[in-house]
C-alpha cells in the first residue's frame, strides 16, 4: 500500500442485503496515475466504484481520499472533495440538453469556471459541441459516454472514476476515448481509476492494474506486467485483440 | 476579440406572413367586390306597380367582402404557414422562417389580454353582468392556474409525486381565516405569513418522505392531505370543525380604501361610483392574476438557478445528482417548501375571496384536480398547465351555463352534476391524443451564449 496514495481502499467489505459483493478489497491509486480494474461480469467492479462514492456504504474497512476518511460520508460530500465519476450506465440526464448536462457537472463551483471548462470538454469531444442543444437521451451511445465523461470533467476532479467507458462503443470511438483519457492524464495530471472489460486497451493505457475475481482482488501489478501475465492473458485476453 | 459564435438562424429577407396576408386580403377584397357588386350589391326587383327597380344591398355586400378578406387573411397569414411548416417538418428540411408577430409576442399578448379581460367584460356585459364572468371564469380559473403552477414545482420539476397538495392550500386558507378574524391582521401581512406557514408544513411533510419515490411517496402525501383535513374537522375549538369559519374579512387596498360598504373609505364612495359587488371581484381578479404571474415568474427564474436545475436533474436521476455533489435532501425540501408556499398564497387568497372556509373545500378531489391539470398540461410546462386549467376548470364552469340541455333531457337535468364525468372523459381524450400533455416537450434553460468567443480553429475542428 502506497503511503502517499490519493485514494486508499483498505480491506473493504460491501454487502447487498446478506450477499457479500466485496470481501476485503485493497486498492490504492496514487496521484497522477491511471489505474485499471479488470474482472469478469459480476466480479464486483462497479460495486467497488459505488462504494468509493458511499452508495452502497462499506460495511467494514476504510476508504481514505487524500488523508480524509470518506467511508461514512454522504455521496454528495464525497463529490465535494473533487471525486467525479462516469458511472455504469452513464446516467446522463436524458431530458436535459448536452449543455445543461454539462452545467450540472459544474454545480460544485456554481458555474464559475463553466465557460472555460466547457471549451476544454468540447476540444476533447468535438462531437458534443455539434450536439450542444440536443437532449441527452437522444444522443447515440458513444455520444452519451462522451457526455458522461465530459460532465464528470466539468467538476474539475482530482480523481476521475470511469466505469466501463468503452461499453458498447465502436473500436474507433473506444480508441478516441482512451486517447482522451491519456491526454487528460498527461497534460493535466488527472488521476484516473478505470473499470474495464476491454482488458487489453485498459492495461495498455494504465500505469497499474488490478484483477478482481468474485469480490476480491487476486492480482495487481503494472499494466505491462499484467498484460504479459499468462493467467491474465488466458482469462481476459485470449480471443481478444493483442 | 475573436468572432462570436452565432447559433441563431440567419434572418431571412422574406416578408412576414402577416404583411403578406394583409396585402393578399386587400387584393381578395377588391376582386370579391368586383365580382359581387352586381350579384349581391344590386338586385333587380319588381315594385307594387310591376315596374322593374334596382334594389341596393350594400350591407350584405360589405359583409361578404369582409368575410372574403378575413378568410384570405387567415389563410395566408396563419393556415398556409402552418401547413407549410408541417410539411417542412415532415420532409425533415430545415426551414428558416421568422416567427410571426403574434407568435413572437405571444406571452406579452396573452398577459395584456388577461389584464384587459375585466375591462372587456364590463364593457360588453355591464358592471353587474360582469360578476359571473370575472368571478367564475376569471378568478376561479386563475386560482387553479396558480395552484397547478405551484404543484408543478414539486411534481413537474422535481418529479416528486404529491397527492396531498391541497393540504398546503388548506393551511394557507385557515391561516388567513383564523388570523384575520381573530387578530384582525391585514391580508398584506397574512399573505406572506400564510406562505411561510405552508412552506413550513411543506418541510414537515418533506422530512419523512425524503427516501420515498414514486408510488410510495404518492401514498404518504395522500395520507398527509387527509390528516390535515381531519385535523381541521376535529380540532373544533380552533377551526370550528366541519361548520367552518365564516365572516372572514375582505382584503383592503393597502388601507387606502376597502370593499366593505359600511366603511367610510369604501371603494365606491372614495371614487363616487356607488355600490356594487363587482368592484371587489374585479380587484380580486387582478390580485390573483398578479399572484399567478408571480408564481410563473419565480418558477421561470428558479429553473435557471442552481436549485431549479437541481430539481430537474433530481427528477431525471437521483444517484447521478448526488455524485455531482448535489445535496438531494435539501433539494427535495426546497421543492416541497416553495411548492407549498404558493399553495399557501393561493389558500389565503381563496379564504379572502370566499369569506368562508370549511374542510369541505380541501378534499382529496381538489388535489386530484390540481394534479390532473399539471399532468394534462405536460409536466413542467407553464403555458401547457395554464391551457389545461382553462380547459378543465373553464369547461366545468361552462356546464353550469348549458341550460339548453334541460330542454333535451328534461327540467330536472342539472349539467354540473356530470362535471366529474366529463372531466374524466376529457382527461382520457387528451391523454390519448397527447400522451405527454398539451405541451409535452421540455424547454431547455440554457443556450450557448452568443458573446462567448471561440477560436475559429476550434470551430473547424468541431466539424472535422
Ligand atoms: N443493487 C444490488 N442488489 C443486489 N445485488 C447486487 C446489486 N448490484 C450488484 N449486485 C450483485 O453484486 C455482484 C457484483 O456486481 P457488480 O455490478 O459490482 O459487478 P461488475 O464487476 O461491475 O460486473 P459487470 O462487468 O458485469 O458490470 C453481482 O453478483 C451482482 O449481481
Ligand atoms: Mg459493472
From TrEMBL, chain B:
<dbReference type="InterPro" id="IPR043428">
    <property type="entry name" value="LivM-like"/>
</dbReference>
<feature type="transmembrane region" description="Helical">
    <location>
        <begin position="25"/>
        <end position="42"/>
    </location>
</feature>
<feature type="transmembrane region" description="Helical">
    <location>
        <begin position="185"/>
        <end position="209"/>
    </location>
</feature>
<feature type="transmembrane region" description="Helical">
    <location>
        <begin position="62"/>
        <end position="85"/>
    </location>
</feature>
<feature type="transmembrane region" description="Helical">
    <location>
        <begin position="137"/>
        <end position="155"/>
    </location>
</feature>
<dbReference type="InterPro" id="IPR021807">
    <property type="entry name" value="LivHM_N"/>
</dbReference>
<feature type="transmembrane region" description="Helical">
    <location>
        <begin position="368"/>
        <end position="396"/>
    </location>
</feature>
<keyword id="KW-1133">Transmembrane helix</keyword>
<dbReference type="Pfam" id="PF02653">
    <property type="entry name" value="BPD_transp_2"/>
</dbReference>
<feature type="domain" description="High-affinity branched-chain amino acid transport system permease LivHM N-terminal">
    <location>
        <begin position="21"/>
        <end position="116"/>
    </location>
</feature>
<feature type="transmembrane region" description="Helical">
    <location>
        <begin position="106"/>
        <end position="125"/>
    </location>
</feature>
<feature type="transmembrane region" description="Helical">
    <location>
        <begin position="216"/>
        <end position="235"/>
    </location>
</feature>
<keyword id="KW-0472">Membrane</keyword>
<feature type="transmembrane region" description="Helical">
    <location>
        <begin position="417"/>
        <end position="433"/>
    </location>
</feature>
<dbReference type="Pfam" id="PF11862">
    <property type="entry name" value="DUF3382"/>
</dbReference>
<protein>
    <submittedName>
        <fullName>High-affinity branched-chain amino acid ABC transporter permease LivM</fullName>
    </submittedName>
</protein>
<keyword id="KW-1003">Cell membrane</keyword>
<feature type="transmembrane region" description="Helical">
    <location>
        <begin position="160"/>
        <end position="179"/>
    </location>
</feature>
<keyword id="KW-0812">Transmembrane</keyword>
<dbReference type="InterPro" id="IPR001851">
    <property type="entry name" value="ABC_transp_permease"/>
</dbReference>
<feature type="transmembrane region" description="Helical">
    <location>
        <begin position="333"/>
        <end position="356"/>
    </location>
</feature>
<feature type="transmembrane region" description="Helical">
    <location>
        <begin position="282"/>
        <end position="300"/>
    </location>
</feature>
